[in-house]
Amino acid sequence: MMAEMAVAVPLVLAAGEQGMFHLPSPEEVRLQPIARAGNEVGWPFSVDEGTLSCVWSAGQRVVMFFEGRPKGLDVDDAFEPRGVIVATDPMQLTLGNMANRALFRDAATVEERLRLVAPFVTMGRKLCDQPAGARVGHGEL
């Protein structure tokens, strides 16, 4: 088992991925503001705008969505945005998001929620491949 790991780790790192024990720095986090289009029916979140983020963690790309600052909130008022993991793994999508599950719009089943978030998982993973500080235009992810 250890020999297999010793062979696999250099291959993973050579493929451009971060190692299993890599701790990301703030410069490695990729952020992209996103908002619901007026006629969009496949929007999976309960708020109309926020930030999609991606970072390498534990050897894989982790995509999250954070709600945007409410429009009526004063600039001086403190705001702690809620965030959810955006994943196609049912365990991460359900159990990993228990604290902030209200950030997702209502879905009748886990399968329906998976169908709604799948395009955002793909966009978020592509975001991880962008250089630091890149701004990706609407429809480019």
Describe the structure.
The protein has 141 residues and is of the alpha+beta class. It contains three helices and four strands; from the N terminus they run αββββαα. It has a four-stranded antiparallel β-sheet. The longest helix has 19 residues. The termini are far apart.
What fraction of residues sit in β-strands? 15-25%
How many E-type strands?
4
Mean pLDDT across all residues, rounded? Answer: 82
Task: Give the helices and strands as they follow along the chain.
Answer: HEEEEHH
Helicity range: 25-40%
Q: Summary?
A:
This protein is α+β, with helices and mostly antiparallel strands and 141 residues long. The protein contains three helices and four strands. A hairpin with a 2-residue loop joins strand 2 and strand 3.
Strand and helix layout:
Layout: H1 2-14, E1 30-35, E2 49-57, E3 60-67, E4 83-85, H2 90-94, H3 110-128
Features:
alpha+beta; 18% strand
